[in-house]
């Protein structure tokens, strides 16, 4: 909420989170396209892009707690998509 000292702190937090999400999406897309053109698995491009922009790399992400929540949802969706690749008779 806003108070008298800072008029729009919630908006600033939202804008930083949106900036972080845009950086993540753009870097993951670029990494996926590059590795796809090289004939490598796209997931490797996603992982390297995340390592590059994360705290161990260029440290481009500011809102780590919120981004970690989105990352957990991303892992769930990735595992769901991986599960769709398998067929029960082959297992």
TrEMBL record:
This is Cation/H+ exchanger transmembrane domain-containing protein. One of its GO terms (molecular function) is potassium:proton antiporter activity. Residues 25-88 form the Cation/H+ exchanger transmembrane domain. The chain crosses the membrane at residues 21-49, 69-88. It comes from Aegilops tauschii subsp. strangulata. Pfam families: Na_H_Exchanger. May function as sodium-coupled metabolite transporter across the chloroplast envelope. One of its GO terms (cellular component) is chloroplast envelope. Keywords: Antiport, Ion transport, Membrane, Signal, Transit peptide, Transmembrane, Transmembrane helix, Transport. The keyword Signal applies. It is a multi-pass membrane protein. It comes from the Eukaryota. It is found in: Membrane; Plastid, Chloroplast envelope.
